[in-house]
Amino acid sequence: MRVHVADHPLIAHKLTYLRDRRTDTPTFRRLTDELVTLLAYEATREVRVAPFDIQTPVAPTQGIHLASPKPLVVPILRAGLGMLDGMMRMLPTAEVGFLGMLRNEETLEAHTYANRLPDDLEARQCYVLDPMLATGGTLAAAIRYLAERGADDITAITLLSAPEGIERLQSELSDLSCPVTIVTGAIDERLNEHGYIVPGLGDAGDRLYGVV
Ligand code: URA
């Protein structure tokens, strides 16, 4: 598994405001959207392309366009939805599948409550969106699920990650034959006893959508 920390001053600037408890929900949503667009740029460095012949006003030439099958973007409900628009701005022709996963706050294990994905993911490049890689339970389950359905290249985009979550993914997904990459805005210090990332930004879903 490859881990890429998108080390860029604009990302660090936006993350600082995202973390700040004084940042209100509309601003939090906008910053998330902007951050995803920047992270998507890094995450799609190896998106598959095919040659494409065009004619400019001056001459014929060959460029490239996204190859088929198109990439599949998979936001993990609920907080991953806040990352979808920013990702689709970069990959407007991608398809979107949804996975609803909830973390049991006592056991911290992931439970799937909604699944709207194509059955066959053979040879698909998948981009999983989940803002917080905390214990890693949700992302490990989501990535394994996609790989077992045939996805052959999986990139997860997270705004923040905890070292514990990254270690868990490294060990739990080591048997997968498909390449897995994590692209994240920052790796924070640790998890606290409630499974929250420290310093983190609190509950990403609550900050995007309000407390339910
Ligand atoms: N999920 C969140 O939204 N925040 C954390 O810090 C950990 C998991």
TrEMBL record:
Pathway membership of this protein? Pyrimidine metabolism; UMP biosynthesis via salvage pathway; UMP from uracil: step 1/1
Instruction: Tell me which residues bind 5-phospho-alpha-D-ribose 1-diphosphate.
Output: R78, R103, D130, P131, M132, L133, A134, T135, G136, G137, T138, D203
Give all residue intervals belonging to the Phosphoribosyltransferase domain: 5-210
Binding-site residues for uracil, renumbered to this chain = I197, G202, D203, A204
Enzyme Commission number(s) of this protein: 2.4.2.9
An annotated Gene Ontology molecular function: uracil phosphoribosyltransferase activity
Cofactor(s) in the UniProt record: Mg(2+)
Q: Which Gene3D superfamilies match?
A: 3.40.50.2020
Summary of the function given for this chain in its UniProt record: Catalyzes the conversion of uracil and 5-phospho-alpha-D-ribose 1-diphosphate (PRPP) to UMP and diphosphate.
Q: What is this protein called?
A: Uracil phosphoribosyltransferase
Protein encoded by which gene: upp
